[in-house]
Amino acid sequence: MNMKVYIRSLDEIALADVQTVGRKAAALGELLAAGFPVPRGFVVTTAALNEALAASGIDPENPPETIPVLPLPEKVLQALAGVVHEIGDTPLAVRSSAVDEDLAGMSYAGQYESFLGVRGQDELAAAIRKCWTSAFAARVSAYRQARGLGRAVRMAVLIQQLVPADAAGVAFSADPVNGGRDQTLVSAVRGLGERLVSGQASPDEWVVRDGDAVHRTGSEEAITSEEARAVAGLARRAEAYFGSPQDIEWALVGGRLWLLQARPITSLPQAGPPQIPVPVVVPSGFWQRDPYSPRPWLPLRRSWLLPVVNATQNHLFAYVLAGTAENREIGGWMYSTLTPLSNPVMMQNRLQQIVDAVKKGEPWQSVDRWYREWQPSVAERLARLRAADLGRLDDEELLEHLQAVRALSEETLSIHFQTGGAVAFILGELGVVCRDLLGQDARYVLRLVTGLPGKTTEPALRLAGLAKMAAERPAIRHLLQDINDHTHQRLAAIDSEFADTLAAYQREFGDRIMGREMDEPTMAERPTFVLGLIKDQIRQGFEPGAQVEALAQARLAAEVSARGVLAGHPVANRDRFEQVLASAQKAYPVRDDTVFYHQVAAGLLRYAVLEIARRLVISGRLAKPEDVFFLELTEVRTALHEGVDQQPLVTRRQGEGAWIQAHPGPGAYGQTPQSPPTGNMDAWLNTLSPEARHVMDVGLWGWQVWAEEAGPGKKDETSLGGVAASPGRYTGPARVITGENEFAKLQPGDVLVCPETTPQWSVLFPSVGALVTDTGGLLSHPAIIAREFGIPAVLATKTATGTLRDGQIVTVDGDTGLVEIVI
């Protein structure tokens, strides 16, 4: 028997052998022959996997969605025995090497399995079987499907002597974010590189440019500047050999540098425009980076939204003793400040204003006005604007439409802030009553208002209904097995009823922008994404009716419990509880309902701006439609109305944007303000009327709940702490999603790890096992959505997106606020 059919030595293979040994092994074999410091090893070829599949009666060209653990055929075991005899009892690194891995646009990063410290034939055989099984995992199938690849998998397994690293990491010979070719990025941790890949350690980050190595972040102290330059040199040599920028894995032991992997940097952006510095003008006072703006605002959004935010956001503080909030752009990044009331006199005047407003019933009037006046009017105007055929409007009509959409978007944001302050006060009243009469905290209060109908969860529940409908129709299920850009066009011919139901869903919910920025497509513009969500929910088995019923029962149980405690109380107490409960349950959905309508208006504004951009491209005043987001809204109007060529301005703004991205501002500017002197504050409080004391009490309850947003962050190498925002405990693979453009990464059962979420992300939640965020609190949007879907959530960890890595197995405890890294 020719053992080389199943086992090849690394020193006898090259890129020409990629079909039999996979891209990873072929590249390393090529580099080893060229004199690079690659550890020697062996490869179990693709023929071995084909043999194992055939022996189990599985067609390698059309495997099922899941496969059993494959036994190693006798021929493969015999060939493997020779390898084990040659290498002895040496610790090994066993890694997958797929044929289409590490190609341009298809890195498969984190998709396949690797095993370190493997010893002996039994452990080696088990590791090979696990590598094979990982090739058929659901996440790999989804990854392949998203790139239009077939079901056939050709995988080899690379076996090398384990390098007992003193330090290890990765390096990029070009900047993978902005495409810059003038610097090499080096990440390093102490010990094995697995600590970096698995997220168990936060690496030292080095930038090497023109021979200078600068340590940017990290406290590992894994390597010296000289060693960072050596790693960068190795990455540059690999780039020169292959003729394209490379992403390498490396290890350092006893002063010797080893190359463990080299692959092209996939999806490397074109080198950005030359950076153009922007002035960094810091106003007086204390300014904090806006935690809800993880990326700089694009000029279009900033130009119309920032003035409206500053003009209306103080409605949120209408019923609390707060000062004035303001947002400003500093060096291209969004910062905010809250000027406190500086002395008891100002506080007393403000308190009297609140008492008067509450006596007049303003909080409850705002909620009533939403249901009676604002919501019907906004819905009707949105429907009318949505019906406009933008392509048929002439330029003047299009500009009038743009102005109408802008006005409605600004109005809905103002309504959101007005009702938001009212809802906070009404919920605070319930909180105070539950504390004083029932001895309960905020989490109990939230049980009393969770599961109420509203726009927070309606899009996701209706989508889940579509998934249930699809699951009952074999033709649709079959169609969804292989989703591509043409799938949605085939729906009507296969099942017109389902196609019509989906179209109705998109008309009602599809026009919202999915995040906070307007350059991201809406759901209506991403039909394959929506079909993917339906497919995922079929696999997850989410039952919307059962979830709604479970939440209603939990809410009812909390009500029954409260009434049982109050049974022995005076009638006035019982009446007070029923009154504030009814008000809170009516008010609670309003805050996120207003967000829904604002985001629909913003989506219609996006459509109008893109229609203008289309016309500007045709007339040669813009290079690409997406360039329009680098213009301010008045500049967009001017370009269409007066025929101004705006491309030079776009180019300058793109250069400024590149500089802004490369120069993120600090977490804060200025000195943290001191608390105002209390003086005779206690004596002053004793002079307050019962109404004023009540207002103070309600406001303090709300502030204490919001204060929980300051989570403890990283606890140690294997755990994070945060706000326990939704109860339950779940263990599953982490999936780090930093923006709407990464939604396709999410797989059913994943732990969603993100900086934050907006209500629009609710469509993801039926497929999610748990939620972990960097920011947020008990009353934030992600907390509300997580509770509505009954998934554990830990918020405000501060560092989750920077600490956790895709594929890590983590346990999320929504009762204790702890996130533990299991594997």
Protein traits:
823 residues; alpha+beta; Dna Ligase, domain 1; D-amino Acid Aminotransferase, Chain A, domain 1; Glucose Oxidase, domain 1; nine-stranded mixed sheet; six-stranded antiparallel sheet; 26 helices
Describe the structure.
With 823 residues, the protein is of the alpha+beta class. Among the domains are: 3-161, ATP-grasp fold, A domain (Dna Ligase, domain 1); 167-264, D-amino Acid Aminotransferase, Chain A, domain 1 (2-Layer Sandwich), CATH 3.30.470; 713-821, Glucose Oxidase, domain 1 (3-Layer(bba) Sandwich), CATH 3.50.30.10. Helices cover 46% and strands 16% of the residues. The protein has 26 helices and 24 strands. It has a nine-stranded mixed beta sheet with strand order 16-17-24-23-19-20-21-22-18. The protein has a six-stranded antiparallel beta sheet with strand order 9-8-7-6-10-11. Strand 8 and strand 9 form a beta hairpin. Helix 9 (344-359) crosses helix 24, helix 11 crosses helix 24 (690-707) and helix 20 (590-618) packs parallel to helix 21 (633-642). It is globular and about 90 Å long. Residues 103-110 have low confidence and may be disordered.
CATH class of the domain at 3-161: Alpha Beta
Helix content: 40-55%
Q: Would you count the extended β strands for me?
A: 24
Strand content: 15-25%
Number of helices: 26
Mean pLDDT over the full residue set: 86
Q: Per CATH, which architecture of the domain at 3-161?
A: 2-Layer Sandwich
Q: Are there runs of 5+ residues with pLDDT below 50, and where?
A: 103-110
- For this structure, the CATH topology of the domain at 3-161 is Dna Ligase, domain 1
Query: Biggest β-sheet, characterized?
Result: 9 strands, mixed
Major β-sheet strand ordering: 16-17-24-23-19-20-21-22-18
Radius of gyration, CA atoms, in whole angstroms: 29 Å
Tertiary shape: globular
Question: Structural class of the helices, strands and pairings?
Answer: alpha+beta
